[in-house]
Amino acid sequence: MALALGTGAILLVVLLWELVRPTFKRAVARGREIWSLRRGASTLSGYDPGRERRAEQRARALLRSCVDERDWAMYRDLGFLRVWGERGRGKRASYAYLIYPHKPIVAYVPQTGALLNEYCVAFPDLSRPYGSSRLPDSDDVLAKWMALTADERRLIADANMHLPGRQVDPGRVRRDLLRLARWERERSVPDPRGTDRAGADPRASSGADTDVRGPDRADTLHA
Fold it and tell me: Is residue 34 domain-shared with residue 70, that is, in the same domain?
């Protein structure tokens, strides 16, 4: 009896295998085909895992060629740039900006360290064939620096404004301001640009003019 049951079980397994074997073989063949296609597409596309790193190296070289040595040293040592506000002349600037890679621009009061606003803008990478939503870090900083120094009012008018802390941790910004002050003391070279800039808080919560816009919107994407 046991022998007969065992033999029947073996026959049942063999029959089931014969039934599912064609489907199994097709599934394996299909999987190999998909894997080969993906591997071939990757090879043909020429994707290089080191591309992003080299792009960042080129971006850093470009940033260094565009800003002065002091600003480059600031970015190299601290990881951000400061830009003085352009509104008004004749006394020290009443506001400035900190530019971080892929974060909003933060406006603050240099004399007190008070945080004013965050201005959110984005500059997508439109290069081909690897364009993406993010520029290399240093290119993003350079794009914001160029926009602020070339046409501050237009950039600020087109940006999405938020109160401090929306995307950038206020504690981090205050620590960075302390790092910046210590960095400047260690260099013992005051920034001459801070002695002849002045102006009102741009679109600050105190009620500054917020309706200034250029004839055309800046080529930025609101974050």
Answer: no
